[in-house]
Amino acid sequence: MQTLAQNVTESVRDWILHGQLRPGERLEEIPLAKRLGVSRTPIRAALATLASDGLIDHQPKRGYVVRTFDLEAIGAAYEVRSVLEGLACRRAAQRGLTQAQSGKLLECLAEGDKILAYGSLRPEDHEPYQRVNVEIHDTLLEASGNPWVSRFAEQAHNIPFASDRIILWDQHAVILHSHTDHHRIINAVIGRDSARAEQLMREHVYYAGLILKGNYESLLSAGDSAPGIFASSKVTDQAAQS
Asked: pTM of the predicted model, to two decimals?
């Protein structure tokens, strides 16, 4: 089970990745503690972690501020993601999946199929599909058997709007295209077709980058005023009480 500090870190990280905390915005301990309903201690730990991850900067006399990433930097992160996650799929196909990994991926595909079978994107399905997407990518990274691939891919995911946590939940055709990619990628990995698995994942992430570029300005202006686009994690009551 995650600690309270880890839950707080993930909440603030999600706010940054989804644009709910804006580039250049100052992060103060007391307002964040009140917003999350926690003491200042886990907030301090969270800010230190996020600074170490490169998501926020510590500036003299200003304290912590959200780091600014321009579209070029975000595009570069997608480029790195495509290479690393493609490599992960190639290695996963070469090594072969464990029964647990294969089962988890197939369960994710089935859950995604069920969500998209309605033919429209329901608001209540946003976070479940987001979890499916993250689970698929994380499982394939893990299946590579190379901890450095996972570590460097995680750094690329820490760039706002370049993370696999970002799901633009407004076009069914786009999400369906992405999930169809998941089917093809996983089938190639299970089938031990390493070259095809790598190429499919690289194209999948590249396509996601193109969609991001086309929606970049609306993402910047939306923030937490657009719940139909964004979904963010929150500290659970159980975590807050621990």
From this structure: 0.76
